[in-house]
Amino acid sequence: MQVSDFDFDLPDELIAQLPPEVRGGSRLLHVEASGLRHDRSFSDLPSLLHPDDLLVMNDTRVIKARLFGNKDSGGKVELLVERVTDEFDALAFIRASHAPKPGSRILLADDVWADVLARQDDLTQLRFQRPVLEVLEQLGRLPLPPYITHTPTADDEARYQTVYANEPGAVAAPTAGLHFTPDLMARLRDNGISIEFVTLHVGAGTFLPVKADRIEDHQMHAEWGSIDDQTALRLNAARATGGRIIA
């Protein structure tokens, strides 16, 4: 299957650069099984679901994964931390005039650096001298998608997270969840709709360009996910009784 089979025109002016003024004020396209379509508001969602439906939500939290620094030689470096693998270790995409070599060091601030350990395909393994998440929180910038053209603001740091974000590790938001509000979630529960949480740290593969001509030749990056035993039991129980699971 050719990637070009999915080409379509999307004018720049139709790509929203800012979220709705009120979270949850977005539009919702409702397509019935018959194919009949309705333009609705996202706040209509509780009326479209059934009692005993079960919603599965991703509680990952977007980290400030973009860092800027300098190589030993003084050359500028931009890092996008794709995955935190340990308290002090991470895998990152590196943008520089010449990629830093294993054994070199990237200076991020006067007293903050990362050592280059090894290359792993198009990623670089780094070891920070301080905990990775601590460094990102102090020095990092929110990694907005490439089609968002402005520099991240304090408002973006709030709005580019779901209201139930809990587990830090994603480099992109689970965007369908951005429309939920505490009030909407309360209405869903009041209507008899259960909500369960799993964790999937969305990786950079979600917005990296597809460079292959054939879809089958495109290599997707792996993403880290977790579901606890009790949540899995409740999901299986819902399926066993004929309930709908919506994720």
**Which strand-content bin applies to the residues?**
25-35%
Classified in CATH, the superfamily of the largest domain is QueA-like
Domains, number: 2
CATH C-level category of the largest domain: Alpha Beta
Distance between the termini: 27 Å
CATH topology of the largest domain: QueA-like
Outline the biggest β-sheet: 6 strands, antiparallel, barrel
Name the helix and strand elements from N-terminus to C-terminus, one letter apiece: EEHEEEEEEEEHHEHEEHE
How would you write the strand order of the largest sheet?
5-6-7-10-9-8
Quaternary structure type: single chain
| Approximate helicity band | 10-25%
Total count of strands: 14
- Counted by DSSP, the helix tally is 5
**What is the CA-based Rg, rounded?**
21 Å
Task: Quickly give the structural class.
Answer: alpha+beta
CATH architecture annotation name of the largest domain: 3-Layer(aba) Sandwich
Sequence stretches where pLDDT stays below 50 over 5 or more residues: none
